[in-house]
Amino acid sequence: EPILRIRDMEYSYGNGEMALKQVSLDIYKGEKIAVIGSNGAGKSTFFLTTNGVLSPQRGEIIYNGQEINKKNIKELRKNIGIVFQDADNQIIASTVLAEVGFGPMNLKLHKDEVMDRVDEALSYMNLSSFKARPPHYLSGGEKKRVTIADIIAMKPEIIIFDEPLASLDPYNADMLEEILEKLESEQKTLLISTHDIDFAYRWAERLIVFANGRIIADGAPIEIFQNR
Ligand code: ADP
Ligand code: ADP
């Protein structure tokens, strides 16, 4: 059974145009999915509706067998984490510790559990020595790692990376690939949007191609590239 099932999802920002049109797909636990498509194709909108930040006007989302509605939409946000492209817009707290603790605190977990999760996420991201630092003064790559720690501390089942490679230097890009390998070994389900076709081909088991708000291809990278 798929972990996430989406049927005929449609989303409009209210300007008459549909940013997503009849989007349907099933996602299985542990899949490694690359999402590609030109700017404006709908990738970000797809991510934001998939994790419940935006509510689609039409369609069905079934998470772990449970149909999502207004009352349980929080289940999506809790279980599907997004690492946004722009780390600066994602960081809100004045120390790395408070930043990474913010999500678990919002889950109303016990204080000890929050601290355990923060320690675990920081050590996972090689950031343990950064706890007391103000995140805004870190380097771009370090900020990116903080935003990934934010998501890891939530222990989501599915992690979405919105163009993670776009702003990273080679050192941090290598580090990101190591983190992806660790997450894969833990059977996390991963979706990554990218303009880097070489990366998508090398990394992904499944490729989803968006154009004009629709999924125009979905399958093994080798099959999709053969048909283009
Ligand atoms: P991406 O890198 O995901 O393609 P975009 O450049 O599409 O990012 O969008 C960057 C930001 O601008 C996002 O927050 C998006 O919601 C917003 N945005 C994109 N298109 C529009 C638009 N036509 N009107 C208002 N905001 C937009
Ligand atoms: P992508 O992530 O593939 O670049 P988006 O999901 O950002 O695509 O955009 C899909 C469509 O929705 C585009 O036409 C874009 O201009 C529009 N859009 C995105 N964000 C907004 C927004 N906040 N307000 C209005 N239109 C938006």
Automatic annotation (TrEMBL):
The keyword ATP-binding applies. It is a peripheral membrane protein. The keyword Transmembrane helix does not apply. Its main location: membrane. Keywords: ATP-binding, Cell membrane, Membrane, Nucleotide-binding, Translocase, Transport. Residues 4-228 form the ABC transporter domain. One of its GO terms (molecular function) is ATP hydrolysis activity. GO terms for cellular component: ATP-binding cassette (ABC) transporter complex. Transmembrane segments: none annotated. It is found in: Cell membrane. Belongs to the ABC transporter superfamily. This is Cobalt/nickel transport system ATP-binding protein. It comes from Parasporobacterium paucivorans DSM 15970. The lineage of its organism: Bacteria, Bacillati, Bacillota, Clostridia, Lachnospirales.
